[in-house]
Amino acid sequence: MNKVKSLIGGIALSVTLAGATLAAGVDVNASNTGLALQGFDPVAYFTVGEPTKGDYRLTSVYNDATYWFSSEENKAAFEANPEAYAPAYGGFCAFGTAMGFKFDGDPNYWKIVDDKLYLNLSAQIQERWSEDVPGFIVSADTNWTDIEDKTPEELQAQ
């Protein structure tokens, strides 16, 4: 448990620094311009199997966030079923969500589990999350219902 508290404390600084970049919506991790996944194509994780930068000219808006795509085909697939491709927990860190917090998800630290895209904050956090992916997903799913509409700052103040 001390390791978890240490990780939470260490990443709290990241949230403090990154919190100002969040869009107005609190349920999606997006930049202050509303860009989700730092411009990475959400469909490419499933089709190419790696983070792929999208094109600013190929966009779609979902849950008040703008997604970029690397091809017209990926954009069409997303628009046909955005829930299938949008990252879990609005793109916030899956491990952080399991702990009851909202931390930035880094598009480079990801995993698809049961056809759902999960992001984590860093390599260290991804490694910790990988120790019990099913357990952390259960915890995160439970926590998400309580934290979805709260800002990262509100969660840290508790």
TrEMBL record:
> InterPro entries, alphabetically?
YHS_dom
Report the superkingdom from the record. Answer: Bacteria
Annotated Pfam families: YHS (PF04945)
Which keywords fit this entry according to its UniProt record? Signal
* Signal sequence bounds: 1-23
Q: Does the keyword Zinc-finger apply?
A: no
Q: Is ATP-binding among the key words of this record?
A: no
Residues of the YHS domain: 45-88
Identify the NCBIfam families for this entry. YHS_seleno_dom
Q: What is this protein called?
A: YHS domain protein
What is the originating organism of this protein? Falsiruegeria litorea R37
